[in-house]
Write a structure and sequence with these properties.
By secondary structure, the protein is α/β, with parallel strands linked by helices. The chain has 14 helices and twelve strands. Helix 6 runs antiparallel to helix 7 (148-155) and helix 12 packs across helix 13.
Length: 368
Amino acid sequence: MELTLDDPERLYRAVVERDRSFDGHFFFGVRSTGVFCRPGCPARRPKRENCLWFRRADDARAAGLRPCLRCRPLEPRGAPSALVSRLLALVEAHPGERLDGARLAALGIDPRAARRQFRAHTGQTFAAYQRSRRLARAVRELEATGDRGRAMDAAGYAAPSGFAAALDAHLARSPRRATRVGGAQRAWQPARLRHIETPLGTMVALAGAEALCLLEFADRRGLPGQMARLARHVEVVPDERAPRGAERLLAQLEAELAAYFRGELIDFTVPIAMFGTAFERAVWAQLRAVPYGTTVSYGELSERSGRAGAARATGRANGANALAIVVPCHRVVGANGALVGYAGHLWRKRRLLELEGAPAPSKARRSS
């Protein structure tokens, strides 16, 4: 079966129809629940805008998603052995613990048999599975609370430096999938990942040789999903393999962010690259045109983007913006001026508008 992840209509149709013939060819994640499934999963069908597409289960886990308990996407066809079932249950029961050979032996489990059966059943080592589950929990904890210490504890790390390196590698893991456009294979752009400290918290930046393609708060809801989408276009590489231009762009970004938070910079000049649909790009272009110190409603933004009346679709496009602050999605408010809809948390949105001297927004209709 020929299938690419660039055909979301076909993928979503398979999910809606619960077509089991697609099982094993792709997996889908659900933003609203944080799980990933097989196409034939019998669970309630998700909304299309909540779906993320993955070639492999490992890619879904790298995006911080957990396996569905109904379709069990980590299990091959056929039931796991009693030993593998016990290992899976132990990992979920002791999420922050490293179940090494000594620990397994203390539990009455033969470590060699455990490793052999686990790898035969899941296609990966038991240690790698534990590591991915710990880091996935850490990502979700970071998104939910913004507390890096709690996220580190959830992942079972004692040293902040080791946790930071593991988290960076986890977020930066790029699915190795080649897509074809017009018969030619699309090449990935190498990019460098960096954490930047700001007065509003840690931000994650990703830059290639010629443009910045990601700037998000580290505790942003859905950051792993953003990374997974960007993985279609860029490949995060170690610092020694990073393109020379990336370091210059990241230095420029840090300087401009510092000036912005001092109230000395109105317009960012760092080059950017944005990947999305034609409508999303139209919305992002209009976002960049919203002047510093002002706000615009979702309805007004949809009209300016050529889709009058499509406020909800405009809101989704606004939320898909991967360049916080530089592309100022924080300047979009509700029709009545309410402070709503900011994945980086509403308290930050208020602080950014206050920094820019924008009119005070109305009370938020829902918390973040």
